[in-house]
Design goal:
Elements (H helix, E strand, L loop, with lengths): L4 E5 L2 E4 L11 E4 L10 E5 L1 H14 L18 H15 L2 H6 L7 H12 L4 H8 L3 H13 L2 H19 L7
Antiparallel strand pairs: 1-4, 2-3
């Protein structure tokens, strides 16, 4: 896995609003879903993403708590700022048809796209679920339509394995 990186996720931050938090803060820091407060989750990231993140860190550094993204004051980025930036980025990179379709309407839509891409690439569903930080049951519940549509990909993977078996063993695998 030369060039691959590993994100070490420790939790999330929710924008709740001052009136909805116990301490009057706008943001609440949460542990990872269904995990102990000190648990972390390691997520492998491909070389292309490693390069982008390293360039970002070189240019902007990181916050004292390790966050990659923060506002000019070093605080959490406001949800409205994310939304405005995301909207500008979509207009810059998508066609009019793609914009009208709602493609990648929210940053969170990239999660679905990423998991779908992993599945399409032939990554084992259990590994996809682990990387996404969810159960395989949740993965199958939300991605079953996608999984139904990858028969040809599965056929190619099986055929490649059969061809490899033939090369190594000079014949088909034994029955049974």
């Amino acid at each position: 896995m030369s060039g691959w990186g590993l994100l070490n996720l420790s939790g999330g931050v929710v924008t709740a609003g001052k009136e909805w938090t116990d301490d009057g803060a706008v943001h609440e820091i949460h542990s990872l879903k269904c995990r102990a407060a000190t648990d972390t989750r390691h997520v492998p990231i491909p070389p292309q993403f490693v390069r982008v993140l390293l360039a970002h860190v070189e240019r902007f550094g990181v916050a004292l708590d390790g966050r990659l993204f923060r506002n000019q004051a070093g605080e959490y980025v406001d949800a409205a700022a994310y939304g405005m930036t995301w909207g500008r980025a979509r207009k810059f990179v998508l066609t009019r048809t793609e914009l009208a379709s709602g493609l990648a309407k929210r940053p969170y839509d990239l999660r679905h796209a990423g998991i779908s891409f992993w599945l399409y690439s032939g990554v084992d569903p259990a590994e996809c679920a682990r990387r996404a930080g969810q159960s395989i049951e949740v993965l199958f519940r939300f991605y079953v339509k996608f999984l139904d549509g990858i028969r040809e990909q599965a056929d190619r993977l099986i055929e490649q394995s059969m061809e490899e078996w033939d090369r190594v063993n000079q014949g088909p695998p034994p029955a049974g």
